[in-house]
Design a protein that fits this description.
This protein is an alpha+beta fold. It is built from 3 helices and 5 strands, in the order αβαββββα. The chain has one domain: Nuclear Transport Factor 2, Chain: A (Roll). Helix content is 31%, strand content 32%.
């Protein structure tokens, strides 16, 4: 590899490492059950969050989304399984656990534990999340809390 290419790769790696570290710190803030407000500090005021509703959410909508989730699952905790970065983007695959202690999408508290996977892609600018895309296994959550019955299937015995 040419010397000028090594320098360019090194600069990119530092940016990617910085964004990955920011996301690790954001996970710690998310998991601070006593005060989760730090989670929002990692998001730009202009953030656009896709995949959490029918339209993109801004920072106000993002707060409303998480306040609803944390009310339904007050002990919700995330565990980072994979963390991959390229350029200004970081993707994580996480495992999420919690206990259903409040209303969730019309289902009253069941007291049941949930565990599901989620994938997020984040784009950073100036050390803040400016765009994010989410894929959550909502159906699994609804099944686990008893809000939706899993149809009988001969392959799931």
């Amino acid at each position: 590899m040419h010397k000028h290419m090594e320098a360019k790769v090194s600069v990119l790696d530092n940016k990617e490492l910085d964004n990955k570290e920011l996301l690790r710190e954001a996970a710690i803030a998310f998991n601070n059950i006593a005060d989760r407000s730090g989670w929002y500090d990692f998001h730009a005021a202009s953030v656009q969050a896709y995949g959490l509703g029918p339209a993109a959410l801004n920072l106000v909508g993002l707060r409303e989304f998480y306040n609803t989730i944390w009310t339904a699952f007050p002990d919700l905790t995330i565990y980072i399984d994979d963390l991959v970065a390229e350029g200004d983007k970081v993707v994580w695959r996480i495992t999420v656990t919690g206990t259903h202690k409040g209303d969730f999408q019309g289902a009253p508290a069941s007291g049941k534990s949930v565990k599901f996977d989620a994938h997020y892609s984040f784009r950073f600018e100036n050390g803040k999340i400016v765009e994010r895309w989410s894929t959550l296994d909502r159906l699994s959550v609804l099944i686990q809390i008893g809000a939706v019955a899993l149809p009988a299937c001969p392959y799931h015995e």
